[in-house]
Amino acid sequence: MVERSTHHEIPLGEEATAVLGQFDRNLAVIRELFADVRLTHRGGMVRIEGPASEVERIQNLFEKLREVVKSGHVPTPDEVRYLSQQIKESENLNGVLSEPIQTTHWGEQIRPKTVGQAKYVQAIRENDIVFGIGPSGTGKTYLAVAVAIDYLKRGLCHRLILTRPAVEAGEELGFLPGDIEAKVSPYLRPLYDAIFDMIPYEEVKRMMENGRIEIAPLAFMRGRTLNNSFIILDEAQNTTATQMKMFLTRLGFKSKAVITGDITQIDLQRGKSGLKDVQNILKNIEGIAFVYLDKRDVVRHPLVKKIIEAYEKSEGKG
User: Fold this and answer.
1) pTM of this prediction?
2) Which of 55, 116, 140, 219 could be disulfide-bonded to 132 (CB atoms 3.0-4.6 Å)?
3) What is the pLDDT of residues 56-66, one digit of tens each?
4) Whether the predicted pLDDT of 317 surpasses 90
């Protein structure tokens, strides 16, 4: 049965350039991905002609693009390509690109850029314990830090604590040169980098001195109760089951914990990964959420996604 053809006109007005892109580059991407539809642009008005279902999808796409523009972000052709593909797959785009979380020093707003990232940020806001599991480049740690800083600035928590296992095989720091700070600093560097993107160095230094921000190896969490805190455990695939239990039972009143990791990158030489075990132990507990990100959520250099796909293929997962 041949689908009936229809048409629709969308007035973009002053938002036309931002939505359609410089020299209509965004419009060119939409035309490429919706080959069965005829799109024409004249005087701030876009006319869509084609199969009814495709016309409806493009209407939804333009509504999403206008929402993104109104939130203060100008979508790039790559972002338009992603949104178009997701709409073709009938994905829910709530929160994608339209919800700024934090702003970097250079004025770039940090937003969830994929469906998976939007679900991840929503889960963090709605649950006290969230596990973000997925490959490198999916924004697990960076987005968690952005949300945590938002909570800290708005007074929703009193301190931010970031931790990760130091020395993959179990925090055996004694053989490393220097004092304890010199020993653990290389392992905590990615956490410092994320914070320094969002808070000036001198301000971070003051907040660390007064205890509002703490960055420490996982071993330093033992024996503590963490109240009024936003706690992030990074590289959790390298925790043992005992370490994971120890960390999770540190959670105090009015606190939130985000645990991030990639279960395909376990460096433990002995013992089971606490991140693998916990997925079965804590499933279906209210207030605890597991969010799984994948190569579709990679937002680093385009080659990173191709590298992940190549490794998956070589390991028989593709």
Assistant:
1) 0.88
2) 140
3) 999 999 999 99
4) no
